Amino acid sequence: ASAEIEKVLARYRAWKGADLTAAFTLVTDVHSHTAEIAEPVDWKDKKAHIPLAIRTAVLADADFVADLGDHDLDRMSTSREKIERRMASTVTLYEPCPLPVLFCMGNHDHGRPLPGEKDPPVSNARFGEAFNTLAGRRGHKLVLSDDKSWGYYDMPSKRTRAIFLNTSDSAYYGYSEKQVQFFADALRAPKGWTTVALQHYCIVSAIGHWRSWRQKEAFTGKNAALVQRIAEDMIGRGKGSENGVTWDFTSGEGGSFAGFFCGDSHFDHQIDWQNVHYTISQGYARCSDYNLSYGAVCTPFERDRMCLFELVAVKPDKGVVKVAGV
Hints:
By secondary structure, the protein is an alpha/beta fold. It has eight helices and 14 strands. The radius of gyration is 19 Å and the shape is globular. The mean pLDDT is 93.
């Protein structure tokens, strides 16, 4: 693993050169179905790969680590105690990270209702408290929502803002209006900055949705079209109002927008859609050939022999992004 990490770092450093660069490692769709951390390490348990993503970020002198969700608490929903042990394992693996870790909630992270209960066992607030308080305990300053399940992290020395969103907020897929307003406001970063958006679900059905999803209303994403419109107006310096959300980028505030970085689909893909860039990372999950969207790539892998996380880098002065698989 160390040799492969060094190969990626060598390519990254050559690409970076002396340019101002913000960087992060991206982990998504771990879908680990065991609550405990195995001793000795069981590399077939995908959450065991998390320390390698942290190591890569530290060696790259990166700015943060992004976890885009789907730890798969659904599979832990036989008891509240098992869910809490599974969440504690993730905290234990990320806790040594000296960099801030930004967590996005996945559609399998609320858990299924326990016997005799109506609501999922993991609320947005429970998820946010468990994971998005880690950075603060390390002395890093995040701007967080009331329930801590979305927010942003500023890197003034890199003139970069990372917004992290909860795409299962008030719907299986989707955003509350309050979160959409937060997103619109957060896009107005200081002049000369670049903003990136991190989230689990890709809101562009042309690349993000499985073939078997596309006709199902639950998978269209509450307020997804509104978020797309706001991002497009940010690029085009427009303004608007819808569903009680208002935005105005006509003054030129907000710098540039590097796009959305997503997981969820279980394949790799990217597209420039209405002048907004979207990248999907396969992460540690798979997709059948039938469900692949056009142009998508799903990499077969052996968990005890391969990692599947990315090193992502953004050059705010040049408006370019590099994604390198590790």
